Amino acid sequence: MWPNGSKLALWMIFLLGLLAACERPSAAETTLAQLPANAVANSAATGSATPTLASTVVPIFAPTATATAVPATPTTAATQFLPATNLPACGQLLPILPQNNAPSVTSLSPNPELLTAVSTSLPEAARPAWEYLLENPGSVGLVAYRVGDETNGIYHNADVQMPLASVVKIIHLVAYVEAVAAGQLDPTSYVTVGTLDSYYLPGYDLGSHSRALAELEAASLLLPSPDRVRLEDVPWMMIRYSANAATDYLHMLLGQTALEATAVSLNLTQQTAPCTFLGQFLAMSNQSRPGQSDRAAIQAYLDNPTSYGTEVVQLAEAYTSDPDFREAEQTWHEEERRPSSQDQRFFSHNLNAHGTPREYAALMARIAQNGLSNPESSFQARRYLEWPMIFPANQERFSNLGYKNGSMPGILNTAYYAYPIGEVTPTVVILFFRDLPGETYRTWRNTLAHDELARWLLDNPAAVSLLRTALTPSS
Q1: CA separation for the pair 362, 306 (Å, rounded)
Q2: pLDDT, tens digit, for every residue of 5-41?
Q3: From its phi and psi, is residue 411 left (phi > 0), alpha (psi between -120 and 50) or beta?
Q4: 430 pLDDT more than 50
Q5: Residue-range domains of the chain with CATH
Q6: How many CB atoms are located within 10 Å of the residue 84 CB?
Q7: Cα(149)–Cα(163) distance, integer angstroms
Q8: Per the count of CB atoms within 10 A, which of 79, 90, 220, 296 is most buried?
């Protein structure tokens, strides 16, 4: 922390040196995942599929593990204003930047007759996403297959690293359930709402934090004096509502090194380091960079990724642990000084955690088949991911359905596994869109065209084969 009596003077220096306010983006351009229109409430049953995947999970929760601490020496203009921290930097075991994000498929010559067949069977709501894939194949990643029949699946830009947005929270979920199963966390312990609020940056989650707490209160799961929730409800907030504050609380509880070790244990070989969402938002724009534009600061991170791994932790730590810093940052963002939508897109497409559609399809298949380290962790992971099974339309079609979506400016992602009723093996669908034009991004957040395309593939046994052959060039 700063020396006593210096904080006020420091903030005055900040305010005198700040740039003119950045353009404030629309609400649709600022935050992470919004749930599908048919999404309702909590949890679901788990399936009875026999585990078929071997798992070699390294220790997940290691709060005392030796790790590289954030260096005390300033690395950019920002660090001279930030307190040092002993927390490990982001990027302990995984790289910060993707190395394989160039698309492998940039043009298509689809079969005309089969295109007609797809168009005839495709739901109207999914058509815009399908047409966008045909017109912009380089900005879409798609993997879909029935487990056990992978050779007949769809693999479009399957091995290209793409920004994950909130889909990366699956790693946090696995790390949490493994720690609980190992007896390292007590899910019946309590977390105060004040603690969770200290991880909350207003205006960057479409109100998901507040909505999650309101639903817990309506269900009599929020206890008073002080207001608090059970630890086991925090991952529910993260998965059901995609609440960033809940995610970042778990992130810092489990630890950076443990989260990255979890990704390694899950064979996510193309994964880049997941950093806190709070730290990401503050790295885009904050009051500790007098005289430096947001775009210049982001470019500096790309030129020196180690500095980003350092500062993203320092910013999050300062925000969560220092009320004065937190209040000043909230005031900063409330005063129309958020990064522009263009800078948000530039940041998210480069510095957000990346992974490949193929590896996330394998991860969803692994979870669907109870392939984590033990039956209890598999059960709990599926209990959280299968919350959409509360919806009657899903109950009519599937015995089990797991889901996580993700959204950042220009990025819309969907990850599914499902057991159609009567089937003993799951189908997985991973559909990632990046570089979406602003108007398309905003429209799809409401119409969910991308999600409708994924659900069509999930819900129709012949759809995967039909779309795969349609994308195959005619001879």
Answers
A1: 30
A2: 333 333 333 333 333 333 333 333 322 222 333 332 2
A3: beta
A4: yes
A5: 28-68+77-475 (3.40.710.10)
A6: 16
A7: 27
A8: 90
